[in-house]
Design goal:
The complex is a heterodimer.
Chain A lengths: L3 H6 L26 H21 L8 H22 L7 H16 L14 H23 L1 H9 L9 H46 L3 H44 L4
Chain B lengths: L3 H7 L9 H133 L6 H18 L1
Classes of the chains: A mainly alpha, B mainly alpha.
Chain lengths: 262, 177
Protein backbone atom coordinates (compact mmCIF):
# COMPACT_ATOMS: atom_id res chain seq x y z
CA UNK A 1 0.00 0.00 0.00
CA UNK A 2 1.31 3.41 -0.91
CA UNK A 3 2.38 5.89 1.67
CA UNK A 4 0.60 9.15 2.18
CA UNK A 5 3.81 11.05 1.50
CA UNK A 6 3.76 10.00 -2.17
CA UNK A 7 0.68 12.09 -2.71
CA UNK A 8 1.80 14.95 -0.52
CA UNK A 9 4.96 15.26 -2.53
CA UNK A 10 2.93 15.45 -5.72
CA UNK A 11 0.57 18.05 -4.34
CA UNK A 12 -3.16 17.53 -4.62
CA UNK A 13 -3.10 15.24 -7.59
CA UNK A 14 -4.77 11.88 -6.79
CA UNK A 15 -3.13 8.86 -8.33
CA UNK A 16 -5.76 6.15 -8.74
CA UNK A 17 -4.57 2.63 -7.84
CA UNK A 18 -3.78 0.47 -10.83
CA UNK A 19 -2.02 -2.77 -11.75
CA UNK A 20 1.18 -0.98 -10.77
CA UNK A 21 0.17 -1.40 -7.14
CA UNK A 22 0.30 -5.17 -7.46
CA UNK A 23 3.98 -5.11 -8.31
CA UNK A 24 5.50 -4.93 -4.87
CA UNK A 25 9.15 -4.13 -4.33
CA UNK A 26 11.52 -6.69 -2.80
CA UNK A 27 11.51 -6.59 0.98
CA UNK A 28 15.30 -6.78 1.14
CA UNK A 29 16.98 -4.51 -1.33
CA UNK A 30 19.54 -7.07 -2.47
CA UNK A 31 17.32 -10.22 -2.68
CA UNK A 32 14.97 -9.38 -5.56
CA UNK A 33 12.66 -12.42 -5.41
CA UNK A 34 11.58 -12.13 -1.77
CA UNK A 35 8.45 -10.06 -2.08
CA UNK A 36 5.33 -9.75 0.02
CA UNK A 37 3.17 -12.20 -2.01
CA UNK A 38 5.92 -14.82 -1.89
CA UNK A 39 6.24 -14.48 1.85
CA UNK A 40 2.46 -14.61 2.20
CA UNK A 41 2.26 -17.86 0.24
CA UNK A 42 4.98 -19.40 2.41
CA UNK A 43 3.23 -18.12 5.52
CA UNK A 44 -0.04 -19.64 4.38
CA UNK A 45 1.59 -23.06 3.90
CA UNK A 46 3.13 -22.81 7.34
CA UNK A 47 -0.11 -21.75 9.02
CA UNK A 48 -2.35 -24.26 7.25
CA UNK A 49 0.07 -27.17 7.74
CA UNK A 50 0.52 -26.38 11.41
CA UNK A 51 -3.13 -25.83 12.14
CA UNK A 52 -4.42 -28.98 10.48
CA UNK A 53 -1.51 -31.22 11.52
CA UNK A 54 -2.05 -30.29 15.14
CA UNK A 55 -5.80 -30.55 14.81
CA UNK A 56 -5.62 -34.02 13.24
CA UNK A 57 -2.77 -35.27 15.40
CA UNK A 58 -4.85 -37.23 17.91
CA UNK A 59 -7.64 -38.30 15.55
CA UNK A 60 -9.84 -38.99 18.56
CA UNK A 61 -13.27 -40.53 18.18
CA UNK A 62 -14.58 -37.86 20.52
CA UNK A 63 -12.84 -34.73 19.22
CA UNK A 64 -11.46 -31.87 21.25
CA UNK A 65 -12.59 -28.36 20.32
CA UNK A 66 -9.40 -27.89 18.33
CA UNK A 67 -9.83 -31.13 16.43
CA UNK A 68 -13.48 -30.30 15.88
CA UNK A 69 -12.54 -26.97 14.29
CA UNK A 70 -10.20 -28.74 11.86
CA UNK A 71 -12.76 -31.44 11.17
CA UNK A 72 -15.40 -28.83 10.43
CA UNK A 73 -13.38 -27.57 7.45
CA UNK A 74 -12.28 -31.04 6.43
CA UNK A 75 -15.81 -32.38 6.77
CA UNK A 76 -17.15 -29.61 4.55
CA UNK A 77 -14.66 -30.36 1.75
CA UNK A 78 -15.09 -34.09 2.27
CA UNK A 79 -18.87 -34.08 2.03
CA UNK A 80 -19.75 -31.23 -0.33
CA UNK A 81 -16.78 -31.43 -2.67
CA UNK A 82 -15.65 -35.03 -2.28
CA UNK A 83 -18.48 -37.43 -1.56
CA UNK A 84 -21.24 -35.66 -3.44
CA UNK A 85 -19.26 -35.05 -6.62
CA UNK A 86 -16.70 -37.84 -6.83
CA UNK A 87 -18.84 -40.63 -5.39
CA UNK A 88 -17.45 -43.71 -3.67
CA UNK A 89 -13.90 -43.19 -4.94
CA UNK A 90 -13.52 -39.73 -3.41
CA UNK A 91 -11.01 -40.53 -0.65
CA UNK A 92 -8.17 -40.85 -3.15
CA UNK A 93 -8.57 -37.18 -4.06
CA UNK A 94 -9.16 -35.74 -0.62
CA UNK A 95 -5.52 -34.70 -0.01
CA UNK A 96 -5.48 -32.70 -3.23
CA UNK A 97 -8.93 -31.16 -2.86
CA UNK A 98 -8.34 -30.29 0.77
CA UNK A 99 -4.91 -28.77 0.10
CA UNK A 100 -6.40 -26.75 -2.74
CA UNK A 101 -9.29 -25.43 -0.70
CA UNK A 102 -7.32 -24.49 2.41
CA UNK A 103 -4.44 -23.01 0.39
CA UNK A 104 -6.67 -20.78 -1.71
CA UNK A 105 -8.91 -19.82 1.19
CA UNK A 106 -6.02 -18.80 3.43
CA UNK A 107 -4.26 -16.81 0.75
CA UNK A 108 -7.49 -15.08 -0.25
CA UNK A 109 -8.32 -14.14 3.31
CA UNK A 110 -4.86 -12.64 3.65
CA UNK A 111 -6.38 -9.90 1.48
CA UNK A 112 -8.39 -8.56 4.39
CA UNK A 113 -6.23 -9.57 7.35
CA UNK A 114 -4.87 -6.36 8.90
CA UNK A 115 -1.17 -5.73 8.17
CA UNK A 116 -1.03 -8.54 5.62
CA UNK A 117 -3.78 -7.10 3.42
CA UNK A 118 -2.73 -8.58 0.14
CA UNK A 119 -4.45 -11.49 -1.59
CA UNK A 120 -1.65 -13.67 -2.96
CA UNK A 121 -3.75 -14.77 -5.91
CA UNK A 122 -3.95 -11.25 -7.24
CA UNK A 123 -0.52 -12.24 -8.53
CA UNK A 124 -1.49 -14.43 -11.46
CA UNK A 125 1.57 -16.72 -11.21
CA UNK A 126 0.10 -18.55 -8.20
CA UNK A 127 -3.24 -18.92 -9.93
CA UNK A 128 -1.49 -20.35 -13.01
CA UNK A 129 0.35 -22.87 -10.84
CA UNK A 130 -2.87 -24.23 -9.37
CA UNK A 131 -4.66 -24.18 -12.72
CA UNK A 132 -1.87 -26.19 -14.33
CA UNK A 133 -1.78 -28.71 -11.47
CA UNK A 134 -5.53 -29.27 -11.71
CA UNK A 135 -5.17 -29.57 -15.49
CA UNK A 136 -2.54 -32.28 -15.00
CA UNK A 137 -4.55 -34.07 -12.33
CA UNK A 138 -7.84 -34.35 -14.17
CA UNK A 139 -6.22 -35.45 -17.45
CA UNK A 140 -4.08 -37.98 -15.61
CA UNK A 141 -7.11 -39.38 -13.80
CA UNK A 142 -9.11 -39.59 -17.03
CA UNK A 143 -6.32 -41.36 -18.92
CA UNK A 144 -5.64 -43.78 -16.08
CA UNK A 145 -9.31 -44.63 -15.82
CA UNK A 146 -10.26 -44.93 -19.49
CA UNK A 147 -6.98 -45.52 -21.31
CA UNK A 148 -5.37 -42.91 -23.48
CA UNK A 149 -7.10 -44.01 -26.70
CA UNK A 150 -10.64 -43.91 -25.42
CA UNK A 151 -10.00 -40.75 -23.42
CA UNK A 152 -8.70 -38.80 -26.42
CA UNK A 153 -11.36 -40.25 -28.70
CA UNK A 154 -14.14 -39.26 -26.32
CA UNK A 155 -12.84 -35.72 -26.16
CA UNK A 156 -12.39 -35.39 -29.91
CA UNK A 157 -15.59 -37.18 -30.88
CA UNK A 158 -18.13 -36.93 -28.10
CA UNK A 159 -20.26 -40.09 -28.29
CA UNK A 160 -23.94 -39.86 -29.13
CA UNK A 161 -23.71 -36.83 -31.41
CA UNK A 162 -24.63 -36.71 -35.13
CA UNK A 163 -21.53 -36.73 -37.32
CA UNK A 164 -21.81 -33.27 -38.97
CA UNK A 165 -21.87 -31.66 -35.54
CA UNK A 166 -18.27 -32.77 -35.00
CA UNK A 167 -17.11 -30.00 -37.33
CA UNK A 168 -18.17 -27.55 -34.65
CA UNK A 169 -17.93 -29.67 -31.56
CA UNK A 170 -14.47 -31.16 -31.94
CA UNK A 171 -12.56 -27.85 -31.94
CA UNK A 172 -14.67 -26.62 -29.04
CA UNK A 173 -14.10 -29.77 -27.01
CA UNK A 174 -10.37 -29.76 -27.66
CA UNK A 175 -10.13 -26.11 -26.70
CA UNK A 176 -12.25 -26.75 -23.60
CA UNK A 177 -10.09 -29.57 -22.34
CA UNK A 178 -6.70 -28.17 -23.24
CA UNK A 179 -7.02 -24.42 -22.81
CA UNK A 180 -10.31 -23.14 -21.48
CA UNK A 181 -10.56 -25.24 -18.33
CA UNK A 182 -7.14 -24.51 -16.78
CA UNK A 183 -7.12 -20.94 -18.05
CA UNK A 184 -10.59 -20.03 -16.76
CA UNK A 185 -9.80 -21.62 -13.42
CA UNK A 186 -6.69 -19.48 -13.04
CA UNK A 187 -8.20 -16.31 -14.47
CA UNK A 188 -11.38 -16.51 -12.42
CA UNK A 189 -9.46 -16.76 -9.19
CA UNK A 190 -6.90 -14.15 -10.18
CA UNK A 191 -9.41 -11.63 -11.54
CA UNK A 192 -11.66 -11.84 -8.50
CA UNK A 193 -8.77 -11.24 -6.13
CA UNK A 194 -7.24 -8.57 -8.31
CA UNK A 195 -10.48 -6.65 -8.78
CA UNK A 196 -11.45 -6.99 -5.13
CA UNK A 197 -8.14 -5.64 -3.93
CA UNK A 198 -8.26 -2.81 -6.45
CA UNK A 199 -11.76 -1.88 -5.31
CA UNK A 200 -10.72 -1.77 -1.67
CA UNK A 201 -7.68 0.34 -2.56
CA UNK A 202 -9.79 2.82 -4.50
CA UNK A 203 -12.18 3.41 -1.64
CA UNK A 204 -9.59 3.48 1.11
CA UNK A 205 -6.82 5.40 -0.67
CA UNK A 206 -9.38 7.68 -2.26
CA UNK A 207 -10.97 8.29 1.12
CA UNK A 208 -7.57 9.01 2.56
CA UNK A 209 -6.91 11.54 -0.19
CA UNK A 210 -10.27 13.19 0.25
CA UNK A 211 -9.71 13.61 3.98
CA UNK A 212 -6.89 15.99 3.18
CA UNK A 213 -9.20 18.25 1.19
CA UNK A 214 -11.80 20.82 2.24
CA UNK A 215 -14.58 20.17 4.81
CA UNK A 216 -17.07 18.89 2.23
CA UNK A 217 -14.36 16.62 0.80
CA UNK A 218 -13.71 15.22 4.29
CA UNK A 219 -17.38 14.18 4.59
CA UNK A 220 -17.16 12.33 1.29
CA UNK A 221 -13.89 10.81 2.51
CA UNK A 222 -15.66 9.33 5.55
CA UNK A 223 -18.33 7.93 3.27
CA UNK A 224 -15.62 6.34 1.14
CA UNK A 225 -14.09 4.75 4.24
CA UNK A 226 -17.50 3.39 5.18
CA UNK A 227 -17.83 1.87 1.74
CA UNK A 228 -14.34 0.45 2.12
CA UNK A 229 -15.40 -1.33 5.31
CA UNK A 230 -18.62 -2.63 3.75
CA UNK A 231 -16.67 -3.87 0.73
CA UNK A 232 -14.21 -5.62 3.03
CA UNK A 233 -17.06 -7.80 4.26
CA UNK A 234 -18.16 -8.33 0.69
CA UNK A 235 -14.60 -9.29 -0.21
CA UNK A 236 -14.58 -11.87 2.56
CA UNK A 237 -17.59 -13.50 0.92
CA UNK A 238 -15.91 -13.42 -2.50
CA UNK A 239 -12.69 -14.86 -1.10
CA UNK A 240 -14.48 -17.82 0.47
CA UNK A 241 -16.61 -18.31 -2.63
CA UNK A 242 -13.62 -18.34 -4.98
CA UNK A 243 -11.80 -20.94 -2.89
CA UNK A 244 -14.98 -23.04 -2.98
CA UNK A 245 -15.51 -22.60 -6.73
CA UNK A 246 -11.93 -23.47 -7.64
CA UNK A 247 -12.08 -26.66 -5.60
CA UNK A 248 -15.59 -27.48 -6.81
CA UNK A 249 -14.62 -27.17 -10.47
CA UNK A 250 -11.50 -29.24 -9.91
CA UNK A 251 -13.66 -31.96 -8.34
CA UNK A 252 -16.12 -31.75 -11.25
CA UNK A 253 -13.34 -32.08 -13.83
CA UNK A 254 -11.91 -35.09 -11.99
CA UNK A 255 -15.40 -36.60 -11.78
CA UNK A 256 -15.70 -36.08 -15.55
CA UNK A 257 -12.50 -38.04 -16.07
CA UNK A 258 -13.72 -40.81 -13.76
CA UNK A 259 -17.07 -41.11 -15.52
CA UNK A 260 -17.25 -43.46 -18.47
CA UNK A 261 -18.74 -40.80 -20.70
CA UNK A 262 -18.68 -37.09 -20.32
CA UNK B 1 8.70 3.44 -3.95
CA UNK B 2 8.32 4.59 -7.50
CA UNK B 3 6.26 7.63 -8.26
CA UNK B 4 3.33 7.77 -10.60
CA UNK B 5 5.34 9.62 -13.23
CA UNK B 6 8.13 7.05 -13.21
CA UNK B 7 5.66 4.20 -13.50
CA UNK B 8 3.77 5.86 -16.25
CA UNK B 9 7.01 6.29 -18.13
CA UNK B 10 7.95 2.65 -17.56
CA UNK B 11 4.46 1.56 -18.68
CA UNK B 12 2.05 -0.35 -16.42
CA UNK B 13 3.05 -4.03 -16.08
CA UNK B 14 0.72 -6.57 -17.65
CA UNK B 15 -0.91 -8.34 -14.68
CA UNK B 16 -1.50 -11.49 -16.74
CA UNK B 17 2.18 -12.24 -17.20
CA UNK B 18 3.60 -14.67 -14.65
CA UNK B 19 6.78 -14.11 -12.68
CA UNK B 20 9.29 -16.96 -12.59
CA UNK B 21 10.10 -16.67 -8.89
CA UNK B 22 6.43 -16.78 -7.98
CA UNK B 23 5.77 -19.82 -10.18
CA UNK B 24 8.60 -21.72 -8.50
CA UNK B 25 7.73 -20.66 -4.96
CA UNK B 26 4.03 -21.24 -5.56
CA UNK B 27 4.63 -24.77 -6.90
CA UNK B 28 7.01 -25.73 -4.11
CA UNK B 29 4.79 -24.23 -1.42
CA UNK B 30 1.71 -25.99 -2.69
CA UNK B 31 3.58 -29.27 -3.06
CA UNK B 32 4.76 -28.98 0.54
CA UNK B 33 1.24 -28.31 1.72
CA UNK B 34 -0.05 -31.24 -0.33
CA UNK B 35 2.55 -33.58 1.19
CA UNK B 36 1.65 -32.49 4.72
CA UNK B 37 -2.05 -32.94 4.01
CA UNK B 38 -1.51 -36.35 2.43
CA UNK B 39 0.73 -37.74 5.14
CA UNK B 40 -0.46 -36.07 8.32
CA UNK B 41 -3.89 -34.52 8.00
CA UNK B 42 -6.19 -36.44 5.67
CA UNK B 43 -5.26 -39.97 6.90
CA UNK B 44 -5.74 -38.90 10.50
CA UNK B 45 -9.10 -37.28 9.87
CA UNK B 46 -10.20 -40.29 7.83
CA UNK B 47 -9.05 -42.55 10.64
CA UNK B 48 -11.11 -40.57 13.13
CA UNK B 49 -14.11 -40.77 10.79
CA UNK B 50 -13.71 -44.51 10.29
CA UNK B 51 -13.32 -45.15 14.00
CA UNK B 52 -16.30 -42.99 14.78
CA UNK B 53 -18.56 -44.72 12.30
CA UNK B 54 -17.28 -48.10 13.47
CA UNK B 55 -18.06 -47.13 17.05
CA UNK B 56 -21.55 -46.01 16.07
CA UNK B 57 -22.21 -49.09 13.95
CA UNK B 58 -20.84 -51.33 16.70
CA UNK B 59 -23.12 -49.63 19.19
CA UNK B 60 -26.11 -50.14 16.93
CA UNK B 61 -25.22 -53.79 16.37
CA UNK B 62 -24.83 -54.37 20.10
CA UNK B 63 -28.14 -52.69 20.78
CA UNK B 64 -29.81 -54.85 18.16
CA UNK B 65 -28.41 -58.02 19.68
CA UNK B 66 -29.55 -56.93 23.14
CA UNK B 67 -32.99 -56.10 21.78
CA UNK B 68 -33.29 -59.47 20.08
CA UNK B 69 -32.26 -61.21 23.29
CA UNK B 70 -34.78 -59.24 25.32
CA UNK B 71 -37.50 -60.07 22.81
CA UNK B 72 -36.62 -63.74 22.95
CA UNK B 73 -36.71 -63.72 26.75
CA UNK B 74 -40.05 -61.92 26.72
CA UNK B 75 -41.51 -64.49 24.35
CA UNK B 76 -40.21 -67.27 26.50
CA UNK B 77 -41.71 -65.75 29.64
CA UNK B 78 -45.01 -65.16 27.90
CA UNK B 79 -45.05 -68.71 26.69
CA UNK B 80 -44.20 -70.04 30.12
CA UNK B 81 -46.84 -67.86 31.72
CA UNK B 82 -49.47 -69.03 29.25
CA UNK B 83 -48.60 -72.69 29.79
CA UNK B 84 -48.62 -72.17 33.55
CA UNK B 85 -52.05 -70.63 33.34
CA UNK B 86 -53.26 -73.50 31.20
CA UNK B 87 -51.81 -75.96 33.63
CA UNK B 88 -53.43 -74.22 36.56
CA UNK B 89 -56.72 -74.24 34.73
CA UNK B 90 -56.40 -77.95 34.06
CA UNK B 91 -55.49 -78.60 37.66
CA UNK B 92 -58.49 -76.65 38.86
CA UNK B 93 -60.75 -78.51 36.49
CA UNK B 94 -59.34 -81.85 37.58
CA UNK B 95 -59.66 -80.95 41.24
CA UNK B 96 -63.23 -79.85 40.76
CA UNK B 97 -64.09 -83.05 38.91
CA UNK B 98 -62.33 -85.13 41.48
CA UNK B 99 -64.13 -83.34 44.32
CA UNK B 100 -67.46 -83.87 42.65
CA UNK B 101 -66.66 -87.54 42.12
CA UNK B 102 -65.66 -87.94 45.74
CA UNK B 103 -68.84 -86.28 46.96
CA UNK B 104 -70.90 -88.43 44.65
CA UNK B 105 -69.15 -91.57 45.76
CA UNK B 106 -69.56 -90.70 49.41
CA UNK B 107 -73.21 -89.93 48.94
CA UNK B 108 -73.81 -93.23 47.17
CA UNK B 109 -71.94 -95.08 49.86
CA UNK B 110 -73.92 -93.36 52.60
CA UNK B 111 -77.19 -94.10 50.90
CA UNK B 112 -76.20 -97.70 50.46
CA UNK B 113 -75.20 -97.92 54.08
CA UNK B 114 -78.44 -96.35 55.15
CA UNK B 115 -80.38 -98.74 53.01
CA UNK B 116 -78.41 -101.66 54.37
CA UNK B 117 -78.96 -100.56 57.96
CA UNK B 118 -82.64 -100.03 57.34
CA UNK B 119 -82.97 -103.39 55.68
CA UNK B 120 -81.12 -105.10 58.50
CA UNK B 121 -83.32 -103.35 61.03
CA UNK B 122 -86.41 -104.40 59.17
CA UNK B 123 -85.24 -107.97 58.93
CA UNK B 124 -84.35 -108.20 62.59
CA UNK B 125 -87.65 -106.65 63.59
CA UNK B 126 -89.52 -109.08 61.38
CA UNK B 127 -87.57 -111.99 62.73
CA UNK B 128 -88.17 -110.92 66.30
CA UNK B 129 -91.81 -110.38 65.57
CA UNK B 130 -92.10 -113.86 64.03
CA UNK B 131 -90.24 -115.32 66.96
CA UNK B 132 -92.43 -113.45 69.38
CA UNK B 133 -95.54 -114.57 67.54
CA UNK B 134 -94.40 -118.18 67.44
CA UNK B 135 -93.30 -118.34 71.04
CA UNK B 136 -96.33 -116.41 72.16
CA UNK B 137 -98.59 -118.70 70.22
CA UNK B 138 -96.90 -121.82 71.62
CA UNK B 139 -96.87 -120.51 75.14
CA UNK B 140 -100.41 -119.22 74.98
CA UNK B 141 -101.51 -122.51 73.42
CA UNK B 142 -99.77 -124.56 76.07
CA UNK B 143 -101.13 -122.36 78.82
CA UNK B 144 -104.60 -122.44 77.39
CA UNK B 145 -104.50 -126.21 76.89
CA UNK B 146 -103.20 -126.66 80.35
CA UNK B 147 -105.83 -124.33 81.66
CA UNK B 148 -108.59 -125.93 79.65
CA UNK B 149 -107.54 -129.44 80.53
CA UNK B 150 -107.47 -128.42 84.06
CA UNK B 151 -110.89 -126.91 83.78
CA UNK B 152 -112.45 -129.48 81.47
CA UNK B 153 -110.41 -132.35 82.85
CA UNK B 154 -110.03 -134.12 79.72
CA UNK B 155 -106.83 -134.77 77.94
CA UNK B 156 -106.47 -133.38 74.62
CA UNK B 157 -103.95 -135.72 73.06
CA UNK B 158 -104.99 -135.29 69.53
CA UNK B 159 -102.73 -132.69 67.98
CA UNK B 160 -105.21 -131.51 65.35
CA UNK B 161 -107.96 -131.16 67.77
CA UNK B 162 -105.80 -129.39 70.23
CA UNK B 163 -104.79 -126.89 67.59
CA UNK B 164 -108.36 -126.23 66.55
CA UNK B 165 -109.37 -125.68 70.09
CA UNK B 166 -106.58 -123.19 70.65
CA UNK B 167 -107.50 -121.25 67.52
CA UNK B 168 -111.14 -121.13 68.51
CA UNK B 169 -110.11 -119.98 71.90
CA UNK B 170 -107.95 -117.22 70.53
CA UNK B 171 -110.65 -116.10 68.14
CA UNK B 172 -113.06 -115.96 71.01
CA UNK B 173 -110.54 -114.05 73.02
CA UNK B 174 -110.16 -111.48 70.29
CA UNK B 175 -113.90 -111.18 69.78
CA UNK B 176 -114.52 -110.62 73.46
CA UNK B 177 -112.01 -107.80 73.56
Amino acid sequence: MRALSVFSAKGDEFVPPSSVDFVLPPIFENIPFITKPILLVLLSVLLVSLFFSLSARKAAVVPSKFQFAGELVYGFVRKDLGQEILGHDFKRFMPYLFSLFTFILTNNIFGIVPFLQFPSFSRISFAYVLGIITFGVFHYVGIRKQGIKKYVKDIMFMPGVPKPVYILLTPIEIATFLVVRPLTLSLRLFANMFAGHLLLMIFILGGEHLLQGAIAMKAVGFFAFGMGIALTFFEFLVQCLQAYIFTLLTALYIAGGLADEH
Amino acid sequence: MRTYIELAEAGAPNPLLPATAEIIVGSVAFLLLFLVMRSKVVPMFEKAYAERSAAIEGGIARAEVAQAEAKLALEQYTRQLASAQDEAQELREAARAQGAAIVEELRAKAQEEAARITAAAHASIEAERQQAITSLRNEVGALAVELASKIVGEALDDQARQSRIVDRFLDDLEKSK
